[in-house]
């Protein structure tokens, strides 16, 4: 009986410790509030990230959970192929949670990119990953200088968050919505107008493509 009691106490302590660690790292998410700046009950009014459709020079990848799609590989997001210096606008409102940049290492064609994370509510955050397609350190610095937001800023839908830096062929923004730490098809997050716009844009390049593939 004593051995069972000791074991139970150890389990409870471990569970409490792990729970404490989880709460520590998720504190801002669990208690996130926007103080009624916008309707955060549900993200169903998202729009596109471009200001003008003429800023889009290609559409090569939408969302796919397998390789059963026109682009032939799993891709958990949307790629917006933008011309140089195009205005990038917020697809949804929220607070800038993080700005991070990645160095994939020397010799990698798409070496540097930077991501703006915007939190919509405690369950949903939105990522804008800027990929200029470059190996040049100076391009990385220029890319970051073209961001017009900083961590902590509150962003309205349609507000400019950056200008896009196009360096090499393939430059784009990888856009995704993460809900409860999972990526899924973004179709249900769009407003009717936003979904109509992005489908018209896609069909201007590929008349029979869908936005998402299972």
Detail the topology: elements first, then pairings.
Elements: H1 2-30, E1 56-58, E2 63-64, E3 78-82, E4 87-89, E5 94-103, E6 112-119, E7 124-131, H2 137-145, E8 154-155, E9 160-163, E10 172-179, E11 182-183, H3 192-205, E12 212-213
Parallel strand pairs: 2-12
Antiparallel strand pairs: 1-3, 3-10, 4-9, 5-6, 5-8, 6-7, 7-10, 10-11
Quickly list its features.
8-stranded antiparallel sheet, globular, two-stranded parallel sheet, 214 residues, Glucose Permease (Domain IIA), single chain, 2 domains, alpha+beta
Describe this structure in words.
The protein is an alpha+beta fold. The protein has 2 domains: 31 residues; 161 residues, Glucose Permease (Domain IIA), CATH 2.70.70. Helices cover 24% and strands 27% of the residues. It contains 3 helices and 12 strands. Strands 1, 3, 5, 6, 7, 8, 10 and 11 form an 8-stranded antiparallel sheet that branches. A hairpin with an 8-residue loop joins strand 5 and strand 6.
């Amino acid at each position: 009986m004593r051995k069972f009691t000791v074991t139970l106490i150890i389990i409870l302590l471990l569970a409490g410790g792990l729970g404490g660690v989880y709460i520590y790292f998720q504190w801002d998410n669990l208690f996130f509030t926007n103080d009624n700046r916008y309707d955060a009950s549900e993200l169903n009014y998202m729009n596109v990230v471009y200001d003008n459709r003429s800023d889009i020079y290609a559409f090569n990848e939408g969302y796919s959970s397998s390789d059963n799609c026109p682009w032939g590989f799993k891709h958990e997001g949307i790629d917006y192929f933008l011309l140089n210096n195009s205005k990038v606008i917020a697809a949804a409102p929220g607070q800038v949670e993080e700005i991070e940049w990645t160095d994939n290492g020397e010799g990698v064609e798409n070496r540097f990119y930077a991501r703006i994370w915007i939190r919509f509510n405690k369950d949903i955050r939105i990522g804008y990953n800027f990929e200029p397609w470059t190996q040049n350190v100076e391009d990385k610095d220029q890319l970051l200088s073209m961001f017009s937001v900083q961590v902590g800023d509150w962003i309205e839908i349609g507000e400019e968050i950056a200008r896009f830096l196009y360096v090499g062929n393939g430059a784009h923004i990888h856009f995704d919505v993460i809900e409860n730490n999972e990526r899924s098809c973004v179709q249900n997050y769009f407003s009717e107008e936003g979904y109509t716009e992005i489908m018209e844009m896609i069909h201007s390049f590929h008349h029979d493509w869908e936005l998402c593939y299972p």
